[in-house]
Design brief:
mainly alpha
Length: about 300
Amino acid sequence: FILSFYFLKKKFNYKFKLRLDHGLWLLKESMPLFGFVILTTIFMQIDIVILNAYKGPYAVGIYSAGVRLTMPLSIIPGAIVTTVFPILVKRMSDKVSSDFLSNLVIKLLYFIAFIIAAVFTFESNSLVNFIFGPQYLSASLPASILYWCQIFLFFTFYTLVVLIAKNKQFYNFLYGAIQVVVNLALNFILIPQYSFLGASLAKLIASFASFVFILMVLNKFNYKPSIGRYKVLLWSLLMCIGLYVLSFLPVIPYLILSPVIIFITTIVTKIFGGEELIIFFRLVNKEELGKRFIQKFKLA
């Protein structure tokens, strides 16, 4: 915290000065985000509380294994969005279209979330057994469902930031409220009958419901993400077919060959265009390598 002020002064000549004249305005603007954070915390934890009340510690242990497998994934959209957010705000302040940037980020987040979910799902039993042991095999299906939740959560992670940049953070609060209400209702309905599987299904449905709400909000502000849905659907279908075939192999060869299937499918379907790939290579200072790669595989 202290070093941050030093680097702000050194790099940007920023001097910290305590001011309270805009304090009330800041509190007013941040209240929806305050509520959103509380609701998100409830959404992430309440199913464990209800599961423990209805089914006891064994069910909580099984379900928590799946949660522990998926929870670290929030680092991925967090890192990507943190990188992109300053560029997004700068484009908006300059009144320059940010559609290309937003579409690229959304497509990338879908790409990553889908790969992780699909790779895990087709070998879920083997992977859970390898990580936690045979006593946690019952966690494989709930964990798979929680992985598929990430597709919706990754998407909304970025679009919620877009709404903040547009000063529309009240919709973030509504998004969190929908998540919690739907999740709570379904937990009370599904957990008594389906235990930890019901908890994971409730989270998936709640994630999808809040995802639909965000799409409606974006449509209200005339923003319709365009990620080439037919190419994306084709890529997703081919990915599932390829990984399903590989799943007949033992888990180690499966994990080794999965990147090959991902690479071939991505190249064949051309899910990322030449301009998009150039941006990826530019981020790692390998733009010339990117141009040769695009030329070699005719991705322009």
